[in-house]
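Sanity check

After download, print the first record. It should look like this:
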Amino acid sequence: INAEYGGAVADSGRGAAAAVSLTGGDDIGLVFYAARLLPVFSSRTAVSATVIIAGVYQVVGWRVIAATGAVYVGLYGYERLKYTDRAMERRFKQQFCDYASIKLHDIVTYTGNCCSTQVQRDLSATLSRLLTSVNNGVSTLKKQIAELNAEISRSKAVFDGSSARALDVGVFREDISHFLRLFGT
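Expected structure tokens:
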């Protein structure tokens, strides 16, 4: 049994509004109708869109909503007709090129980082070897300098000793020659 209340037709058998009279001036009936349909929608987007459309309907009317929908459907149809197999192929190729360039850039960056790390590691190892070699060379030179200083000290001691002996030899010669003059033949 159907009964008409304020422009809306209610179906008592289903418990929800079955139709809305658009000729009546009752906008509240449409909002209540949309609110009764909310359990039908399962996504938040659909619920949000219904509430927004009901609010816009109250503010601007059904003609603006219909014109907006017609423009949207027209643009959608135009894009659908324009998006041919060739356009899809071009788009796919463009997406692939973009993807490949991003991946190539990532590879270059990764390789550069790895090479930089490897070069830094090699330079550190070379520096370590060179420092070890220099330290060994310095210690060897210090040992040689110490040995040469010891040899120089011994040479000075020998020279000083030989100079003193040379003086003693000279004095001894003089003593011998004086002895030979006195007692010699």
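If your output differs, re-run the checksum step. Summary of this record's structure: Residues 85-183 form the longest helix (99 residues).
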